[in-house]
Amino acid sequence: SGKHQLAINALNQAIALKPRNAAYYQELGKIYEKTKNLAEAEAAYKQGIKLSPDWDQLYELLGNVMLEQKKYSAALMIFKKAAIKVPNCDSYYYSLGRTLLKLNRLNEAEKCFHKAIQLEPTKSFYYRYLGDIYKKKGQFDLAKHNYQKAISISPNTAYFYRSLADVLAKQNLLDEAINTCEQATQLNSRNPNFYRTLGDIQLQKGDVTHALKTYQRAIKLKPAQVKQIFAQLEEFIQAKVDSTTTNNLSPLAMTEVQST
Predict the structure, then answer these.
(1) How many CB atoms lie within 10 A of CB 96?
(2) What is the pTM (predicted TM-score) of this model?
(3) I need a surface site. Which of 83, 121, 153, 184 has the fewest CB within 10 A?
(4) Per-residue pLDDT tens digits for 18-39
């Protein structure tokens, strides 16, 4: 926008006058990052680090920009440098954990999130990421425990309920999973993914009628997912219903969903 360009121009003028001021590059990087000019943001943060190599916050900013560009290995090295410089900063271990999770290095990521929680046990999203790791590892009881902990800290965060519902469904605790996912939709009624998850769990339970109604809501919010939902319904019908019921149910399913 014009406002951001004016700020960039002003900072470049300031840099021309004081080219060794790392703070100017930090602010320049933030503006570029805000406007999604990530390569320029990366270059600005790198120049700031070159001028002030002991400024740990610049490493975190640079690492986040690299994460956004999916430069995971490079981001990992940057976050490691930040954690070495300030070993008692929980956010650096959080950033390390997120990066290791992207690289599917689950055991190392788990250790980083435990360290972040040890340093700052009141941040709910640390437990959420730890839950994600345990879910990927198939350790569903531990995943459930961490999602529940996240909810106890931030009871109005809808995503946590969806994550917990997914784990409960994997444990075949379907009624509890449905109730939990319904809480997510009550907290955020505009997210189609919550309705998609709820519909999937209802379908897993065999409650086709409620699944169809829930899928209708998901499609209304995000029409692009209609093909995936149709395919999932057909797969369920072929796997779970005998041929006579299939002939009666499949046209009904398609008619009801298309009527939204």
Answers:
(1) 25
(2) 0.85
(3) 121
(4) 999 999 999 999 999 999 999 9
